[in-house]
Amino acid sequence: MTRSEAARRRALAVVALLSAAAAITARAGADASPIAAGRDLFRIGCASCHGLDARGVAGKGRSLVGAGEAAADFYLETGRMPLSHPNVQPERNPPAYGAAQRRALVAYVGSLGGPAIPRVDPSAGSLKDGLKAFTDHCAGCHAITARGGVAPPGAAPALQEANATQIAEAVRVGPYLMPEFGTREIDQHALDSIAAYVLSTRHPPDKGGWGIGNIGPIPEGLVAWLLAGTALLIVVRLIGERA
Ligand code: HEC
Ligand code: HEC
Predict the structure, then answer these.
(1) 79, 116, 126, 137: which has the fewest C-beta neighbours closer than 10 Å?
(2) What pLDDT score does 150 carry?
(3) Nearest ligand, measured from the Cα of 196
(4) 59-68: string of b/e by CB count within 10 Å (b at 16+)?
């Protein structure tokens, strides 16, 4: 074997080794894909109610086939899942999983089919159209101020914590007792506008004066009388003491 031939063989061996390593890494990468990671998390945290293969458990949790990324993202980002007990209304909580784990769970549920996370752009909507659509479709349960109300046998929450994506997801998914709205009832412009309107209720315009948390004209009047009365008492006392 000449020296150059030996060098060539060594080089070939190195190439073979490198490509084998690359193949192994690629396979490991596939195993560590978000969907597979999500399936593992699902089996630990969700299967007790939704089943090992997400096809549901009678009396505990429904099948998630067809629920889609939209529902999974909404329920996980708003901390509604995992639920503590099958028969309670899901409520907003701090998310139970970190961001990467939520992405993995969403990818896994999404891999079972169903709607993608809806697009929404509040800056493309109009506040006026949003107020109209919200009045028509949402205010009956959430109140026109979006501060929440009753939706027997449950409660419709205040909406000031939801971001634009979560608003769009709720509209399209219809969580718990809320109806779901398709694009025929609420088209993209109406959706953008509803999001713009709901986000605007986080900071309602103050019609002058001191807002005292926008609790309404009657308590505002009471506060005014209380302050004025206290001021008057102080003045009276000061004058009285001097005299
Ligand atoms: C029939 C009553 C009802 C109607 C109509 C309704 N909702 Fe809801 N909404 C609910 C209930 C109940 C919940 C709580 C769901 C849960 O517990 O998981 C909810 C939850 C939400 C949430 C999640 C809030 C959060 O902080 O996590 C958003 C956002 C929302 N609704 C927006 C809307 C919009 C926008 C409309 C109109 C297009 C609408 N809702 C119409 C009853 C209703
Ligand atoms: C204690 C039982 C329980 C556990 C644990 C649980 N769920 Fe649920 N899940 C439910 C019930 C009950 C509902 C129906 C709630 C509703 O109508 O809003 C539901 C609804 C859902 C939905 C909406 C389905 C749809 O068709 O819109 C998704 C998505 C979901 N769960 C995902 C999960 C994930 C992911 C986990 C684990 C992190 C999980 N759940 C853990 C009981 C559970």
Answers:
(1) 116
(2) 85
(3) 1
(4) eebeebeebb
